[in-house]
Amino acid sequence: MPREITRVGVVGLGAMGAGIAQLCVEARVETVGREVTLDLAERARDRIAHFLTRKVEKGTLEEAARDDAVGRLTLTTELAELAGCDLVIEAIVEELEPKRRLFAELEPVVGPDAVLATNTSALSVTEIGAATERPERVLGMHFFNPAPLMPLVEIVRAELTAEDAFETAYAFGTRLGKTPIRCHDTPGFVVNRVLIPLLNDCVRVLDEARVTPEDLDVGMKNGAGWPMGPCELIDLVGIDVHVHAAEALWEKLREPRMAAPPRLVAMANAGLLGRKTGRGFFQYDQR
Ligand code: CAA
Question: What is the DSSP letter of 83?
Answer without folding.
Answer: T
